[in-house]
Design a protein that fits this description.
heterodimer, A: alpha+beta, 10-stranded mixed sheet, B: alpha+beta, 2 domains, 12-stranded mixed sheet, two-stranded antiparallel ribbon, elongated
């Protein structure tokens, strides 16, 4: 009999007897399902957060902030500077010849999450009318667009879902002003969907601001040379102390702290659990081979080799691990995928809402972890099974 | 006590299994200890809040400034015994945004407001007298290797100096710390002297970020808070005043769902590990029922044999839990070293030990009681005959 055939034969016997060892086998399956479920769901949270920020902005657009500022919150662009920036040669223009640039201010407003009472920092963005030409991915999905010069707001889809009192037609009070929600917008699931938007001029007066915080603009030349040319033009003008960043670069930076934190958390917890699950798997496989000691020894006595015995035990461990991995991945997918949550982004000090994203890549990573635990848990017991002298095994079995 | 060797021998009847089970328990409790430490660290803010301290911020958003001129008016509100203020500096250190918090404060008033901070009297004096002075929390000093007496260059992301530059420099004149680990998280901050800061900044002069108010009677805190807010009602800068603890809790809520979610996942994990381990242990006891019958044959009473089963489980879980918790304690100190100043200090509070002990006892009981009861009722003949 070839050893391949032997492996198949023993593995089949093993797997057929699995139901008799349900209790211990379940330990492996549940343990590994736990590891994979936690790993995948925590990483899916990180992935969703990163995706939300990474899908914000287009490489063809720049955001201009005061030099030295890493976030809009701490930046400041005076009104005259904003006009200068919009008229720079590198900035694209629409059919009417107006620059595709929007000077914006961002303030934090206190709104509770739905069903709660504690205020959270929700970003409130005042945008110029050109903003909708600049960000052409933005669509009004309910209600209508902003009118100029009145206290109206449109609300991002995720903000409307996450925070209280933001449905179309409702009124919200900030400072000494009442605002009417006239529309809800979507912009491809990006970070702006967590925001509230109003007309910049109205917002400036309502929040008693004199200047903007950022200017977002479309480039005529979207190559690296185009960005460089714009930076050079800014540097030549002594009235401007401004840094231009491509949007994706800027938003990737905004994700740094929180996504690092989630990653560290996910991997460290999963590592501990994986160690625990490996012990569980070892225990299970040892008791599996112990209960089959006589059987294995008999097989070896009638001519089955050591290697097929090892391989068959490994196959059993891997099958159990795989079942656990698939179970954990499925649970993570069913419970987490698409769920929305919001948290404080430490980089911007404001709320950002995002969806869990269970991607195929994450599921694959979960399965790899499961198989590694399976190998780690199966190898030593497998070797022991093949090593015990046949005579000893038959006598003590 | 004379039966301990017997328990020990029974435990190591199958060495591999016992060791593996033990390690699973160790891991579970290690995880439990670490998680509870993280949880405690987050809640410590609220615990360390002083019930006699109120905070006042701008009514509509915590990032809006308030006039410094409010201080004397707040001081006159009945029941208020001290007022201090602080402002965000928006630090950027070594090109890292928000590497740590920097508050511009009036040194004397601010330090008096936080008696839980310890600072050498000479250094405190120096901070009050040095206009460009700064003091830093001990954990920050350690993390960046600062020395008292050095120049401290910190950029601001918000405040420009009169020359338009964002680069500021301070004289590090002192270091402060706190005894209580729950308070120590609040010391991860650099305090600068507002006298120099306010004079040197280009805009926003005469404004500050928030007020800290001490009241004589914690019972009156809410009434006084309302009185303060009434003072500034209908002014351009309306205020929102609340006990310190409420602000800390509200801030924790900002982080919101994530914290709750992670805690829930982790508790689920912990209990999964325990249930799985318990299952293995219970099986190990069941396997040994014939042996226990032999003990009975030898003359051990029903109670004694049941006690053996319980004792064995208790010993295994107890050792595992203790090792796990000690492991967690051992890991905290390097963890704190590595995250100093970025993350509140982690520590294991006495209550966590209590919980760990309770969970360990519960686990041992749940695992050993059913087989224990069975052993108690066991008829020797049946057991030896193999009728389990």
């Amino acid at each position: 009999m070839s050893s391949l055939n032997q492996i198949v034969q023993i593995a089949l016997i093993n797997l057929r007897t699995l139901p008799q060892r349900l209790g211990t086998s379940l330990v492996v399956v549940v343990g590994i399902a736990g590891v994979v479920g936690v790993l995948v769901s925590v990483l899916a949270m990180g992935e969703g957060f990163r995706h939300t920020l990474a899908s914000t902005g287009r490489p063809g657009r720049v955001i201009m902030l005061r030099s030295g500022s890493d976030a809009e919150m701490s930046s400041g662009i005076a009104r005259d500077q904003a006009t200068l920036l919009a008229s720079l040669p590198g900035i694209a223009r629409d059919e009417a010849g107006r620059p595709l640039a929007s000077a914006e201010l961002v303030v934090m407003v206190d709104l509770p999450r739905r069903g709660q009472t504690d205020p959270t920092n929700v970003p409130f963005r005042g945008v110029q009318p050109t903003a909708f030409g600049v960000r052409d991915e933005l669509r009004i999905v309910e209600g209508r667009a902003l009118a100029r010069g009145v206290r109206e707001v449109i609300v991002g889809r995720k903000a409307a879902r996450e925070f209280a009192g933001l449905s179309v037609g409702s009124r919200i009070a900030f400072r000494d002003s009442d605002w009417t929600v006239v529309g809800i917008f979507a912009s491809g699931g990006d970070v702006h969907e967590s925001e509230i938007w109003a007309d910049a001029e109205v917002a400036l007066s309502a929040f008693r601001r004199t200047g903007f915080q950022s200017v977002t603009a479309v480039l005529t030349d979207t190559s690296p040379a185009g960005v460089e040319a714009l930076r050079a033009a800014i540097a030549r003008d002594r009235r401007l102390s401004v840094n231009a960043l491509r949007e994706p670069e800027y938003y990737a930076k905004q994700a740094s702290v929180l996504s690092k934190l989630i990653g560290v958390l996910g991997y460290s917890v999963a590592t501990f659990m994986a160690i625990g699950a490996t012990f569980g798997a070892l225990n299970c496989m040892y008791s599996a081979i112990a209960s089959r000691q006589t059987e294995i020894a008999t097989l070896r006595a009638i001519g089955f080799g050591g290697a097929p015995v090892v391989a068959s035990v490994m196959i059993e461990a891997l099958v159990l691990a795989l079942v656990g991995g698939v179970l954990g991945g499925t649970l993570a997918y069913v419970y987490c995928d698409g769920a929305t949550l919001s948290t404080l982004n430490f980089n911007t000090f404001s709320q950002v809402a995002f969806d869990f994203r269970v991607t195929p890549g994450l599921l694959a990573r979960g399965l790899v972890w499961a198989l590694v635990i399976g190998v780690a848990g199966g190898l030593l017991p497998a070797i022991r099974a093949a090593r015990v002298p046949v005579t000893v095994a038959l006598r003590t079995g | 006590m004379k039966y301990v060797p017997l328990l020990w021998a029974q435990l190591f009847r199958r060495k591999t299994r016992t060791v593996l089970t033990l390690l699973s328990i160790v891991i579970a409790f290690l995880l439990f200890g670490l998680l509870q430490a993280v949880q405690t660290a987050f809640e410590a803010g609220a615990d360390s809040a002083d019930a006699k301290r109120l905070l006042t911020i701008a009514r509509y958003s915590m990032i809006e400034p308030l006039p410094m001129a409010y201080a004397p008016r707040i001081e006159r509100v009945p029941g208020v015994i001290a007022v201090a203020y602080a402002d965000w500096f928006g630090a950027k250190y070594q090109n890292e945004s928000n590497a740590f918090a920097v508050f511009a404060v009036d040194p004397d008033h601010y330090l008096a407001m936080y008696p839980e901070y310890s600072i050498a009297p000479a250094q405190r004096e120096a901070f009050v007298k040095t206009r460009t002075g700064a003091v830093a929390g001990k954990r920050l000093m350690d993390r960046y290797g600062w020395k008292v007496g050095q120049k401290l260059p910190i950029a601001s992301e918000i405040h420009t100096k009169k020359d338009g530059s964002l680069d500021w420099q301070f004289d590090l004149v002192g270091v402060f710390d706190a005894e209580d680990p729950a308070v120590r998280a609040n010391t991860d901050v650099v305090l600068i002297n507002v006298a120099y800061f306010d004079e040197a900044r280009q805009s926003g002069r005469g404004k500050t970020g928030w007020y800290i108010i001490r009241v004589a009677d914690a019972e009156q805190a809410r009434t006084i808070a309302a009185d303060i807010d009434r003072q500034f009602m209908n002014s351009p800068d309306e205020t929102k005043t609340a006990p310190e603890k409420e602000f800390v809790l509200a801030f924790a809520k900002q982080i919101g769902d994530i914290g709750a979610l992670v805690t829930r996942i982790l508790l689920a994990v912990f209990f999964t590990i325990l249930i799985l381990t318990g299952n293995t242990m219970a099986q190990a006891i069941r396997e040994r029922i014939p042996e226990l019958a032999i003990l009975k044959t030898l003359g051990f009473s029903d109670v004694a044999v049941t006690a053996f089963v319980l004792g064995e489980a208790g010993l295994l879980v107890g050792i595992g839990a203790a090792l796990g918790m000690l492991g967690a304690v051992g890991m905290l100190s390097p963890l704190n070293g590595a995250t100093g100043g970025r993350f509140p200090p982690l520590f294991i509070e006495p209550a966590t030990w209590g919980w760990a002990a309770a969970i360990a006892a519960l686990l041992a009981g749940a695992v050993a009681l059913p087989p224990g009861v069975r052993v108690h009722r066991l008829r020797i003949v049946d057991a030896l005959a193999g009728h389990r």
